[in-house]
Request: fold
Amino acid sequence: MEPRIQYAQTADGVSIAFWTLGEGMPLVHMPNIPVSHIRTEWQVREVRQYYERLAQERKLVRYDGRGTGLSEREVADISLDAHVLDLEAVVDRLDLERFVLAATMFAGPAAIAYAALHPERVSHLILWASFARGSDLARSPRGQGLAALLEKDWGLFTETMAQVMFGWSGEPARQYAAYIRESVTQEVAQVVFRASSETDVTALLPRVKVPTLVVQRPLLALPELSVARELASRIPDARLVILEGAAYDMGAWLDVIDEFLGEGEQAAVTPAEAVAPGGFRTVLFTDVEGSTALTQRLGDAKAREVLRAHERIVREALKSHGGSEIKALGDGFLASFSSVTRAVECAIAVQQAFARHNETAAEPLHIRVGLSAGEPIEEEGDIFGETVILAARVAAKAEGGEILASLAVRELCAGKGFLFADRGEVALRGFEEPVRLYQVRWQADEAPA
Reply:
């Protein structure tokens, strides 16, 4: 059955067509800019089988970029930043907290930019026959030849793309050439090719901190194999896979994806540990510093949009460290752990993630984190008692970007390799005696007090 076409709207008001297929881990497949038509390509048997295989045990998301396919055609901006806006519109429309991002050829720079700027949302990055610097293509003999054809003969250009780029001949090549012409106009394709020649995201490559797979086939006309090698060498710990055979032979390519995404899949998520009611727990409380002022300054809708980053980052950290989300509090979270070590590691991961987020965010978020340990009361999925109240009071004493912990947490972490600074005894509302607090050091340049 053909997937249902839906629409998302970008921040600059452009309508983007997309569909989803399957259930499970989200995999967002960016369009092969500027060639994309999500309805027409579904009629091509080879392409349909490729998508159906990708969607096995995953939620595949496919969309048309602006100016192409079923998305809005009459657009003024087809820049790199605009392509990032298209991606953002779709993932936000689907409320995807974390997903695999896959990009081919000219979509690669936009995928690299998004992964570098939003590591909290991208779990894996897959780059197929792509590049970071458009001039590498524009200066190559094949790139110059294709650019000349694009300017002079649209029909010959589309046929050449099908035959030279993908190795197809006969009816499959003619079918793909027709697909290109239906996807995009010659004028839009010219604009995209010219803009891509000036694209350069090389400076962002060291900032891509997610597992990355770079795949290239030597038989592809563009880009050259040397471009793929350089791309993989500049992304920390990226894996380069060179596949023999024709580009349209997708079986090996799909096997590589499955292997890449399957490696460490169980280790990537630490399941929350079951704890008997009334058992000992470490309680974590987060709070966004200045959230009230943020809402007053931006308004409810815009502030809510900003605070979604807090929710995404904290939930991902909880999932990765085996924490149980007890409740979301609008501008904070209450969570519990059966392991004090995991609780502290989670708190550190939260602050590190926000530090990365704030490097590029228009509205930086500074999070206070409080930790306590004890035996809270559990009722109907919620927890109560002094341990919970203490975590909230400890968080309230923290500064933005700071983690404070109770004495019990500090003692339970003895010998675990964490660094603590004694903050002394502090009066906390609701507690008769002063409470000694400890700051958890999480930045590399910090030293214990």
Q: What stands out?
A: The chain has a mean pLDDT of 86. The radius of gyration is 25 Å. The domain at 281-441 is CATH 3.30.70.1230 (Alpha-Beta Plaits).
